[in-house]
């Protein structure tokens, strides 16, 4: 059935899966590690329900903050993967080395987007008439949470790049799930830590004001940097990240506005981080694979996907089935183990994730292919655009798919 859907004989699909068995195992293992991490994030989200109610606007900020960590560091991992493939990567972290310049660009983007996420979460909430804390408070939370989580993710990405270069791993297969999971795992607690600054309002206002200044200065200096690589990364990334953070804020607002109605059962809250993270991870893995093939000339940036791209889609479908089954089962188990939570039946949880995953896999495949090929066709680096576009698209589309599945199946 899958082969007919892709227009490829099933024997070729099976043969490609056997050829890429190492990638399938690596991808499935990475998704498994990511699932464990994001389930913890889901439990944290469920446990922080009272804190989220006390700080209006924070729930709208969470997908943007998490999405930006995944977008910035997922794109960094994708660029390092391409650097390993093309021989540019050097494991030594020096300022003028390939790795050092990539880290500098990601640092600039981390400062800029942390401020931007707070501003947009506040502005869109106000525009839609939703309750929110003052602008400087939200910027302060976003800045502190963003920088704390970024520190952790720098260590994760650098370690992965060095190990991949040493062991011959493909970061295209393992980078996106592990980076996304690490971002989900550390960003939500970091935001909750950042929210503690509100206990001393003058400090919160000072940090928020400083964040606004630093965010603007970081973008200006990065865009005018004399190093061509850093300048290109910042200029190309800021455009797509601005779009991405806006979409992520809208995803947060969808969750915030529908939380009481669609996620009335606390067990369903557990599904939000792992489901959205898996959507972004699967799309990121596909986008990264396509970007690498475009860079080395194995793939043409055609309007409609060719045979090789369709075979990569088939790998994504296989991994998606495994991933969303894991999300449903692990979400049910987490709800069973957490005290004072009424778990839903296992089949209900699996039904929600399977149906939502069926909707999501077609969206993420289309988004990944369009982002990679369109950016390449117009002379941009698909490593800078693919993962941020796919991650942001799936943050919003993933929430909508999950809400749609819950509504259709009348779960909770």
Question: Which helices and strands occur, and which strands form pairs?
Answer:
Layout: H1 2-6, H2 10-19, H3 21-47, H4 49-54, H5 58-86, H6 98-127, H7 135-167, H8 171-194, H9 201-223, H10 228-262, H11 266-269, H12 272-296, H13 307-337, H14 346-377, H15 382-409
Helix pairs in contact: 3-8, 3-12, 3-13, 5-6, 5-7, 5-8, 5-10, 5-12, 5-15, 6-7, 6-9, 6-10, 7-8, 7-9, 8-12, 10-15, 12-13, 12-14, 12-15, 13-14, 14-15
InterPro entries: SLC41_membr_dom (IPR006667), SLC41_membr_dom_sf (IPR036739), SLC41A1-3 (IPR045349)
Protein name: Divalent cation transporter
Subcellular location: Membrane
Low-confidence stretches: none
DSSP strand (E) fraction? Answer: under 5%
- The number of domains is 1
Helix and strand succession?
HHHHHHHHHHHHHHH
Distance between the termini: 32 Å
Largest sheet: none
Number of strands: 0
Kindly state the percentage of residues in helix: over 70%
